[in-house]
């Protein structure tokens, strides 16, 4: 079908939908006439048709003006159908300031369980390795242990920044890929009744605890802890949050309540995805700090400890205490 024929056939329909969206503020049932009620009833079907028209226009490379018009109609349809706007800067900022902590606070049970499953193995393994250093080999192979030792060995570290700026950028990309990979696995494995998320959280706690204990036992305190304290507030917390999002999915399948398991999963996914949006932002920040701040050996350790402590306080204040009334108001409006 040529563009001219396509437009001639559907222009009246598009104009009708534009009028419908312009009048969206008058959807109160008391103000609906019969025609308006019929339009509302037919809207889901009409919205799917708009999506088909947009896909067809893009696939056939119709004029940019037509594609823009259809794209705007589809966006307006999404907002009308789901009651939330998309691609709006204000909405994104509003979510980052209030929405993410609201999603966390409304899922406290999953959050604290995830924290316990991560922190307890971390503490236990760290203490065990400090008492018996050979225990680290139960969770890491010898080559990985040697690599860790050389990375934090004070005798091998050079004065001044060890990497050039282009290497820092490369490592920034590497950290993004690695961190988001761990976070996504912690989340996605929750679909297996939450067990997958629990296993990944516990394993990461064991490995990180083993490394911490090993570095402490070797006396590499002045190289290891100043490196990890800065980005750890974002990275480790985000791993716990992603595990909590995975548990949210898993528990919905174990205890769907009055819903079918599929419906319960869909409801749980709304909150879980909101948590994961925030997690991805935290992991991006962690990667940036790790690549450009943590790796610097010219910065005095006292400064790194001070900044790291402030970052830990900031993360936990923001997630659990920041603007309680505003976050609670956002939660009552948006978090299911």
The secondary structure category is mainly alpha
Mean pLDDT score, rounded?
82
The secondary-structure element order is HHHHHHHHHHHH
Helix content: over 70%
Largest sheet: none
Would you report the number of β strands?
0
Rough outline: elongated
The proportion of residues in beta strands is under 5%
Number of helices: 12
Distance between the termini: 44 Å
Domain module count: 2
Radius of gyration: 26 Å
Low-confidence stretches: 27-32, 158-166
Describe the structure.
This protein is an all-alpha fold and 336 residues long. The protein folds into 2 domains: 85 residues, no CATH class; 241 residues, no CATH class. Helices cover 79% and strands 0% of the residues. The chain has 12 helices and no strands. Helix 1 runs antiparallel to helix 2, helix 4 packs across helix 10 and helix 7 packs parallel to helix 9. The radius of gyration is 26 Å and the shape is elongated. The two termini are 44 Å apart. 30% of the residues are buried.
List keywords for this structure.
mainly alpha, 79% helix, elongated, 336 residues, 0% strand
Quick recap:
By secondary structure, the protein is mainly α. It has 2 domains: 3-87, no CATH class; 94-334, no CATH class. The protein is 79% helix and 0% strand.
